[in-house]
Amino acid sequence: MNAETLSVTSSDNGVVIIGAGLAGWHVIDAIRAKDKDIPITLVTTDSGDRYHKPMLTMAISQNKRASDLVRATGTDAAEAAQVTLLANTHVVDIDPVAQTIQLDTTDSTGAPTSLGYDKMVLAMGAHPIFPKSLPEDLVWHVNHIERFGQLQEKLATGSQHVAIVGAGMVGTEIAEDLLKAGHQVTLIDLNDAPLSQMLPAKATARIAKAVQSQGINFLGGYQVSGVRRINDGDEAHESIGKLQVSYEPIASSSDSHSGSDSQTVTVDHVIASTGLTVDDKLPTAAGVEFDRRTGIVVDAPTLRTHADNIYAIGDCMSINGVACRYVAPLRAQAATIADDILGLDHNGYDHKPPMIRLKNKAISVMATGVPQANGNWQVKSESDDELVMELFDDNNEVSATVTIKAPATPSA
Known about the structure:
Its cofactor is FAD. The chain is α/β, with parallel strands linked by helices.
């Protein structure tokens, strides 16, 4: 939809939401549940289709294409919610004083399209980090349905070798999903075990063992130093050539590596799962307090930013210095924003870290609180089939827990 379909001249500009991921659509749902008439405009750089992003790490083995994951097209969802959708549109500037945003489109006179707002919600999410060693033109990510769909089409041609760089939650889930789909998988991480940035070594050792027992080639304690395309000898078909991934051991890792020289592995595809970052352009323009790694700072009870009439939610937002990148709290966050925008009494958002579950069949991992690798972790119970550990804070109170279980053995 072209932005020229919208010309804002009324003083009642309503609500502008930037970003059509789960967070943005949850805010729309929450507002419409209590007010059917307030004008809402949704601005998004993509089509605005509604889908459940966590399904992306499980969809390949289930043979689901991108279209199978779409619950409603952006056009249909916008019509049902009675909102104005500006799809495939970029916000290039925000004026928090005039309460306007500038779009990358022009009106009928050729002037840049400007859109006013009474309240604005930043829900633009976060985007993958690509270290210099992972060139974006050669490396995939699965943080968005369109890129997932392109990768899924490539993998549908038959069994292939895929290298995944980064063994956090997403990388570890994708590794198992690809393996179940019949692909060969090499999982590379800076640490000696998956999930090492959030759990202690005693716990992650079990995860590493489970991952390797599946047949995933886990290379722990290595950093990728480069990815390059191998010319297959036919320039006309160079785009379908193999990729060579160079990696080398981390100096501070364990002594389990036999050598210190750079090594290589030849693969068909490389996927980056090396973390997320929030683009600083719009937060800076809006004058909100912001950290590139964790996101936009908000007032926890109201999810208001430090700029008047601007809220933030989802992957682009942080509370008390911690990024909020889980799906479970989104409905409660959206409800709070809706009540605050509509001037309704509310008790305030009560942020509670959600239970974290690793969606892998090879091992069950459940964590509560805000787990982190370092700290005073203590074993609560331990057996061959289960490990329970607790993280104690400076007040000797439990601030996080993790439970790791071996998968149940199928009955005969």
